[in-house]
What does this fold into?
Amino acid sequence: MNRRTFHRAPEGERRQDLIEATLDTIAELGLQGATVRQIAIRAGVTAGLMRHYFASKDQMVAEAYRAMLANFAARAGDVAGEPGPRLRQFIVLNLTAPVANDRSLSLWASFISQVRVDSELAAIHREGYLAFRNDLQALIRDFLVAEGRPADEAECRRHAIAINGIIDGLWLEGCLAGELFEEAELASIALSAIEALLGLSLGSH
It folds into this structure.
């Protein structure tokens, strides 16, 4: 287990350091193994200091899940340029490292098993899903408008749901068996499928 160097910093930064230590511990040991003691060891602090920032392990886990979802996927703000290249780059970023890697898979597997039984995690999951889907829907709308195609919100929403499903499925394949695919192969497959869905080219890939 690699320990973090916990340094003097503003309250918000120290809290973020502890959240990252929580995620590292969950990725390695799972939710059950990520005790307050193990997280404190990872962070290089005392369990008492952990309790200064978080009232309980449940609160730590909830904040860690919220942070994971915020950084788990690329967001629309991470890409710039014209609508077509923006949408294409958004898709590629969400199917390549660091979004698609072993750590992401470990965290996803640990948290997703609890989403169905923990109402707070379920609410955080819904919030993260909708933020990602809304980003995707906006990128699709901008692309369709730029191409002179109808961009009805209901249709853009349907496209976003479908494309999110394509990304999720290929992301999982890449994380579980990345060695079976050539570099950028899954991103290329996703782009081809999405072009077929939209009936438009997203450019070279």
